[in-house]
């Protein structure tokens, strides 16, 4: 794996976390316990910080980045991802905030200053535009996303199951090292 410092700041990775050898992590990144970063993920915490919670998985080919401080955004936009989040293959997250128990579908894009509350599913290929808030308990689809419907009890339960399944998988990968 490629883990690099930027301006003297290195990623902080919990010991019980799996980082694939092809992933690239640069700068101010913090990754919580039991999380996993899969092949070809690129994460740059260079002009702001990235914080990834516990039991969160970032799947193959995803891109994580941030927005620098500016006159229009004095604090810039860090990327903050909560606990028990599943980020599907080739998702792009840029300077946004994700709560807990979220499923980001494959190829979804979430842009600057968007906020995704807890217990949300974002359909594959969806676009969450800047400054949009996605309310807890719903499925969102489309480009730009629209609230499709309330999540069922089974879907709400699946959000935790998905994260738990990736904890099991990352443990299997760690046993191989």
From TrEMBL:
It comes from the Bacteria. InterPro entries: LbH_gamma_CA-like, Transf_Hexapept/Carb_Anhydrase, Trimer_LpxA-like_sf. PANTHER family: DYNACTIN SUBUNIT P25, PROTEIN YRDA. This is Anhydrase. The lineage of its organism: Bacteria, Pseudomonadati, Pseudomonadota, Gammaproteobacteria, Alteromonadales.
